[in-house]
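Reopening this one. Same input as before:
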Amino acid sequence: MIVLVVSFIILLFLGIPIAYVLGISSLFYFLATDNISLLTNIARKLFNGIDIFVLSAIPFFMFAGELMNESGLTKNIIKLVNVFVGKIRGGLAQVNVIASVLFAGLTGAAISDVSALGTILIPAMYEEGYDKPFSAAVTAGSSIVGPIIPPSIIVVIYGGMMGVSVGGLFAAAIIPGLLIGIAGMIAVYYISKKRQYPISNVQFSFEKLFNNFRKSFLALLIPLIILGGILFGIVTPTEAATVSALYALLLAMFFYKSIDINQLNKVILKSVKGSAKLLYIIGVSSIFAWILAYEEIPTILTNSLVNITDNPYILLLLVSLIALFMGTWMEVTVGVIIVAPIFAPVVESLGIHPIHFAITLIISFLIGVATPPVGVCLYAAAGIADIPFESVIKDILPFILVYFIVLLGIIFFPQVVLFLPKLFGFA
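Same output, byte for byte:
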């Protein structure tokens, strides 16, 4: 076990991608063990980790998201939202948050949100009089909504890996995702009022509203098609992903006519690469998770946590803090795959519902991606704004604070998560 931990830490600090760190450190562990027959577990666990039917939804969701990015839908969504909130103080920053909520259902990935919205809104906010660090912080902070509001790739991964209903997780994620969005809007309003950020010069008119709504409406139906189909039992998550990909393709190529065959090839290639990378991470993470289970690490941690407290909500809070810390430096997918099998049996044995734990864990990790000292979305937003990472830290803290308050509400009031799954018969 020492070989696994030491090699993991050394490789991580050498800057090697986390997927390779997991695979190489696992290989070192197997080579160092006396039982060489354990080496056969590498190929088997790698295959078994991705041999889960629901994970076949991932390439289709990624394809649909890439199509929406390439088709220029982002600009239409921004224009639509700007008509509603552009005239209030800090309106363009509010557009950033609300567009993230709407865009979430089309991509399901935080970094996609930063890339798609940040490249448009960060320069626009700066030109209108916002500070660059604040513009980057708003973009990074609002980006975590993407992987919460369905369809969410990390939710699909969790459901397939842990045997939890993906439909139930989708239903459970809606209210927490909206609460995160509202919390971000509150933070934007407070900061904008305090700093006297500008009011957008957009002029409201029903004609402008109708035109922007017409351009965005069909695309914004994608999350409704996915959610409605799953929640009402019409399609499985995998079938919903396939339908959304086909629908997005028809919109982009034949309705909006914003993608030609060359761009389509680019989208397909990018989706294949992204899916392969994600599935590889899932595979090597399953090997790493198996080693932890083989060494009885979950049992050791369980006994340690139970000795601290037997209150299920305090225990869930402790696990959330661990996940939030890990999320600041570890890729969300990897972190969830490693942590979920360890802590899920512990908290569930104390009466926490599996869906409640899943959503809490995922949100904890996602808050981490926008939290210093690393925070991948924070780095991405700072890069788009062309400013030092350190300059964004002060402006991101109010968002982290309000998100953490939402997280506490989710932990101690499980009905926030479980209301919709119970309503639709998933819990």
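So the earlier flakiness isn't reproducible anymore. For the record, The longest helix spans residues 261-294.
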